[in-house]
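Lecture 7, part B: from sequences to assemblies.

Below are the input chains for today's worked example.
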Amino acid sequence: MAIVKHEKTPARPAPLTERSVIGWMHRHLFSSVLNSILTIVTLYIVFITVRDLWVWGISDAVWIAESRRECFDINISGACWAGVLAWMDNIIYGRYPREELWRLNLGLIVLAIWMAPLWLPRVKAKILIGLSVVFLYPFMAGYLFAGGEKGIFMQIMLTAAILCLACNTLHSIIGVSGGGGLREFLFRLPVLKDAPEKSQRNILLCLFGVSFVAVFVWQIRWNLDGVPWTQWGGLFLTLVIAGVGIASALPGGIILALGRRSRLPVIRVLSTAFIELFRSVPLITVLFMATAMFPLFMPEGIVLNKLVQVIIAVCLFNACYMAETVRGGLQTIPKGQFEGAHTIGLGYWRTMGLIVMPQALKHMIPNIVGNFIGLLKDTTLVSIIGLFDILGMLRAVSVDGAWRGLHNEPLIFGATLFFLICFVMSKYSRRLEQKLSTDHKH
Amino acid sequence: MAANINSDKPVALKPVEKFDFFNDERVRSVFYQLLTLAFVGGFGWYLFTTTAHNLEVRGMGSGFGFLSVEAGFDPDFKLVAYQAGVGTYGDIFVIGILNTIYISFLSIIATTILGFSIGVLRLSSNWLVSRVALTYVEIFRNTPLLIQVVFWYIGIFSLLPKVKQSIDLSAGSEVVLLNNRGLYMPWPEPGDLLWLTGLALVVAITAVFFLRRWAHKRQDETGKIFPTLMPSIGLIVLLPVATYLMTGSPLGWDIPKLEGFNFVGGATLPPAFLALFVALTMYHAAQLAEAVRAGILSVGKGQKDAAMAIGLRPNRSMTLVVIPQAMPAIVPPMISLWMNVVKNSSLAIAIGYPDLVAVFMQTSLNQAGHAIEIVGMTMAFYMFVSLSISWLLNMYNKRVQLVER
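Predicted structure of the full complex, as structure tokens:
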């Protein structure tokens, strides 16, 4: 007689040492004598550090005071955050006129509105939106921040920017609510739908022309007081320099990278030399070069201000780093893609623009974000040559009468601020990398 | 037609080549290259003429004659003899280069040791330890190096006790002292026969080299392992020590002594040096740790399993299987990190350590003018270092490729 068990034996739960908190601790903290000692020592060090930081930075810290002396009188063993709070406006906005601060905030809000569609689902033509941010937003922001007289070129670009922002927003709203895009929406209007094909285009052109003229006329009356660049400063200035740097580095980097991979020897050699020149020297030497040598390069009568010099230097420097990022992206594209493009008869520019770049850019996004983080951190160097960026402002706290000698608290605040920005961005880019790489696997 | 079909010869299908001047690829490529050359050349010519004109208008001289002009200032840290008022701008250039190389070299060594340690800790099976290492990496990677440099200088090394209350780092013997003027330590004073000890060391290292080669060869041929570690250490330590003692200990120490308000004698490292050294090391170690971690993780799990399957103990599987395969992934980023250490040492300017950029590109440029020459010389130095390091990297890559077959 065979002994046959008819019901399935249920799986026994794993032993207690494997599944509970105790099991986890056993495996990860106390798996051997050496490990246990390591854990206890580390725990002690972490405890001491966190406790001291807590006592200094939070529990003994002084938040409200008029001067550093008062901080000392209240509690000498804690941090004096009151000084940082008193200087907060300066750290963020620099010496920008206080009654004009709305312009900076508006600029930031406009940027947020402009870029928001990039993250919204169901919005089409994201590449175009991205390009419009890079090429048109700077003009709008430039006028908002600097103000003053606008030349005819600035007026046209400003009009284009406003119009583009309006179209973008409309487009995105239509897209999110499920109506496709602005184009589909317009063609669903009775006027366009019933019109013959030829006049459809004319109607659209007319619509565009009329709105352009309307916006143009409106912006003529829009006047902002000029704010000289010497009053720009703080985190705002850091972001402006880094923003311009990254926006111009991308096209510059693409051109340099294509040049470096070109089949034409002259172009290849020149691009390589340019890239390697700037990549092998420290940024500070490039900044010194800009301030010392650019004035000699200008024809008589033209004087570049220091901010422009710095921005040009940062752009040149960063374009070369971006070129290497782009080159890395281009190398991930298999040769078959180039050959396929050739086979269907595309020329060089179409191969690059339609086939290679769209794929390569997707691979490059995490590296571009990494590049931007690096640039943002490097931008603090402009304080060495006398611009009052965020680091310049943080160091200026200690020479202010009431807060004389307050060095550490502003620096730690600045470091924390940078840490938050960079950490969030790098985490986001890593997530993006994972998302894109899973997208790639079919 | 019929004749063609019947003939044995195949019909040569040669495409009709019509030379179209404007659409020919070769013509176009030459044209584009000439255009680029003309553009770059024109731009260069414009820069040259404008600069020459500007220099003339402002009455500024050019040429490298200024290098033999006396520089009226005295860098407060230097590795070679220099006298203010006598030393020239050429001397200043040399001092700057030596200072840059000095701090970069020490930081590179410290970065490599610290970076590898933290990278290994990041992979520790101990959860707490790996988390602490991760926290370290994230904090130091995500804050600007310049803020770190300034913080170490102002927040730590300038707040140390005064000279009278120096911190004694040598446990009571008062030979290594740290205070707000810097780090004071003994400096060796070589005697007459010290070169014999050096020679002994060289001999020992050569002997160890040949011993290891012989041991390898023997293992390849017979499979017998000859333990080389203990003999190697013995040779390298014992031989020089024996020589040193036999020649009568020909090495004196110049120990710092408190005289008046400061220490005299020994070697001194100013606070700016210490701050820059610590900041560079901590910042780049965090980045190296990530490279080390990525390199070790890039070795597939199967490799470790296979090593275990053929009976290698964990540490042998690490040294014989994992590390040799991880190194090709670790070394290239590590070498470019070394280059970054050299470049970032130029942040010295923010805290007054007299490196090349600070003494030459700032002080000398402000005093002597000659912007183009000075900027060119400084950049040429960094480019030279960069080229040397990429040469090193290429050598390594070539070797690795040969080993990989």
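Note for the exam: The CA atoms of residues 259 and 268 of chain A lie 5 Å apart. Keep this in mind when comparing with the next example.
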